[in-house]
From TrEMBL:
This is ArsR family transcriptional regulator. Pfam families: HTH_20 (PF12840). The lineage of its organism: Bacteria, Bacillati, Bacillota, Bacilli, Bacillales. Keywords: DNA-binding, Transcription, Transcription regulation. The keyword Ion transport does not apply.
């Protein structure tokens, strides 16, 4: 039996990937993710300085990425660094941007 191309019975399987794409669907968040691919880990101050945005704005974007499971935090004493937590995101970013633009 062939699986239909469009199957409303399995629509729930698209929830998680759709939420991942929604979290990435902002230019600042795409920039943050691409930057983390290049640097491997960064603190909010470094990201804020590079983007020339208020710290609160950067923190809000990082929180959205964190809620979606795209980034995670690593604590080193008082410093909190952000790292990529979902490797699927790397493939998405590499598809959207030139490969050379995503490597350090």
């Amino acid at each position: 039996m062939n699986t239909p191309a469009f199957d409303s019975n399995n629509i729930k399987q698209f929830d998680e990937p759709a939420n991942l794409l929604k979290a990435l669907s902002h230019p600042i968040r795409l920039c943050i993710v691409r930057g983390l691919m290049m640097k491997k880990k960064c603190n909010v101050s470094y990201i804020q300085e590079c983007l020339d945005l208020p710290q609160s704005t950067v923190s809000q974007h990082l929180q959205k990425l964190r809620s979606a499971g795209i980034v995670a935090t690593e604590r080193n004493g008082l410093e909190v660094n952000y790292v990529l937590a979902d490797q699927r995101v790397e493939q998405i970013i590499k598809t959207l941007f030139e490969k050379d633009d995503c490597e350090s």
